[in-house]
Amino acid sequence: MSSPKFARPPPEINIAKISFPAPRVLLVTISRPKALNAIDISGSWELASLFDWFDEEASLWVAIVTGEGRTFSAGADLKGMHEIDPTS
């Protein structure tokens, strides 16, 4: 399969691996298996950026989200929640 052509490249993210397994399909594999794919604060921002890009990319119609390892996702990674400033 040839590389897909996009209006602009996808954002670089660390929390997940992205691929394009078929025309018009984005595959997002959350890749934090040691943390049961829990999503930390920076990861949530990365995923938001990725899905903003996906929403603007007319050549993509479907996004599939999966998790690496034995778990899809344990949910939010609460370890970093103390870093959030509730006044902002």
UniProtKB/TrEMBL annotation:
It comes from the Eukaryota. Pfam families: ECH_1. InterPro entries: ClpP/crotonase-like_dom_sf (IPR029045), Enoyl-CoA_hydra/iso (IPR001753). SUPFAM superfamilies: ClpP/crotonase. Gene3D superfamilies: 2-enoyl-CoA Hydratase, Chain A, domain 1. Belongs to the enoyl-CoA hydratase/isomerase family. This is Enoyl-CoA hydratase. It comes from Trichoderma harzianum. The lineage of its organism: Eukaryota, Fungi, Dikarya, Ascomycota, Pezizomycotina.
